[in-house]
Design a protein that fits this description.
Blueprint (H helix, E strand, L loop, with lengths): L7 H27 L2 H4 L7 H13 L12 H12 L1 H15 L10 H11 L8 E5 L6 H8 L4 E3 L5 H6 L2 E4 L6 E4 L4 H5 L2 H4 L3 E3 L2 H11 L7 E4 L6 H9 L6 E7 L4 H10 L9 E5 L1
Parallel strand pairs: 2-3, 6-7, 7-8
Antiparallel strand pairs: 1-4, 1-5, 3-4
Amino acid sequence: VQAPNDDLSVKQICYEIAFNVLKYRTVIVDVLNESHFYATFPKLQEVHQLVIILTFIQYIIEQPLPKDNVYHNEIRTILRALFIHKIHIDASFARSRIKLNAATVIHLLPEEDREEYEKSNQKDENAPPYYSRINRVKNSSDDVIGSLQQHFKFYPTTPDHTTLNKSPGFYRDSEFKDLLVFSHSLREELTGLAIVKESTLVLQERVLSYVISSLQGLIIRGYDIIQTHAGSGSLSSYLASVVDGNKVKLRVCGCNPGDIPHLQRNVNRQGIPGRNSHSALIPL
């Protein structure tokens, strides 16, 4: 899409998106194929490049888009398809991250591209926000938000993307009440806070909340949950924090014996009782 010649700001945004889409192209194509997007919407293969761009905007930078009625029919059709297929795409991104032990979607990029992407976004008003989960095992939502307000501006309602980056602060996610959204520029200050270091506030991506939300509806009392790949232990800790350890056991496989102490420390730091309680880490 060619930006209007007389609008330099729009042209700059378009060029930045196009440049970054190229970096994520392989990741996005793999996710679309693995989630069977084109098998579900075969006609959209004809506009494959546009699908990649809109997937990048929706899932990588999570840029809010204008209301539906401003779009060309082709774009509207793609956006609706992405919305319908959202759970599958989210799950595919999550699987990709687990396979590569990637802490965030950005970590799916090759190291050189990732460092360049993060550097270019440090002062970018369109940079994606950071997400953090309130660990309610250790403290209440109100107490954590109150503590954060001593350091950052709190938005009681969801601000637009530009406002959040021009006037750095944080707000509560509209869908997941224990998830907080922070301006990109607050990253270093946020990670230095005591409540983050002690895992009362846990840095994570929004997609992880979708995964846990989907799993919660499938948990049956008296049954064990088996996680087949431990990864960094973030998913294990999150899942263990939302199940009742007296009724459901979470057994985490796919870790080497040497990794168990690290995983156990991660679980303990988040206030989750360890082996033979909420979580049992089982080595291969």
